[in-house]
Amino acid sequence: MRGDLRDYVERLLAHFGPRHWWPAETPFEVMVGAVLTQNTAWTNVERAIDNLRRSNALTPEGLSSLSTEEMQEAIRPSGYFRQKEKKLRALLKWLLGRHGGDIEKLRAGETDGLRRELLELWGVGKETADSILCYALTKPVFVVDAYTIRVLSRHGVVRRGATYDEVQESAHASLPRDTAYLNEAHALFVALGKEFCLSRSPRCAGCPLEELLPAGGLKQQN
């Protein structure tokens, strides 16, 4: 590949500017959003978050006070609302029951241990866990998603069919282990995937990473 991942990030930053992601007022709101954004567009999550805010349910105590029916109705716009209600309950049980709802204390915890705990929760996968770690708990973790895998595999940075862990390991080996930097890097790859590196008919002409394409063009179309 031409350049390294830092070159990719610098070019994306020059093109898109800072993304100011994750849009939330509190770390707990980030946690809730990380669950609600599973398998849906962010615009739908915003509607659900607004519903929770109107219900004064964007604190651990406020959310846990909602009945099953109240929570499901509030988060209905995010889709799969019955499953997501159960996932939020599992998150609340962990946060309140195991850590006393003390997010600042969580932030002082050890990253790998917190990640293991999050991955033990029902409905929390690697992307959700790492989103919580990076965006809510300010841990230097690179969040991998479909956009990132698509971009990096098409550029030959990672192999076709690379796993979440392989992509994350590649990013951690190349990028500074700085929370703010990794936060921005992930958000920039998302912006690229939405605007240029589309699932079908990618827009390579004019892409900020066009000069970094391997000889012969994209490695794969997916």
Quick one: how many beta strands? Answer: 0
Judged by helices, strands and strand pairing, the structural class is: mainly alpha
H/E series? HHHHHHHHHHHH
How many angstroms does the end-to-end distance come to?
A: 19 Å
Summed over residues and divided by their number, the pLDDT gives a mean of 95
- Which runs of at least 5 residues are low in confidence (pLDDT < 50)? none
The tally of structural domains comes to 2
Relative strand content:
under 5%
The rounded Rg comes to 18 Å
Largest beta-sheet details: none
Architecture (CATH level 2) name of the largest domain: Orthogonal Bundle
| Broad CATH class of the largest domain | Mainly Alpha
The count of helical stretches stands at 12
CATH homologous superfamily identity of the largest domain: Hypothetical protein, domain 2
Structural overview:
The protein has helices spanning 5-16, 27-36, 42-54, 60-64, 68-75, 81-99, 103-107, 111-119, 126-136, 146-154, 164-174, 179-195. With 222 residues, the chain is an all-alpha fold. It folds into 2 domains: 5-19 and 143-212, Endonuclease Iii, domain 2 (Orthogonal Bundle), CATH 1.10.1670; 27-136, Endonuclease III, domain 1. Helix 1 (5-16) crosses helix 12 and helix 8 (111-119) crosses helix 9. It is built from 12 helices and no strands. It is globular and about 55 Å long.
Task: Throw out a few tags for this protein.
Endonuclease Iii, domain 2; Endonuclease III, domain 1; 2 domains; 222 residues; globular; mainly alpha
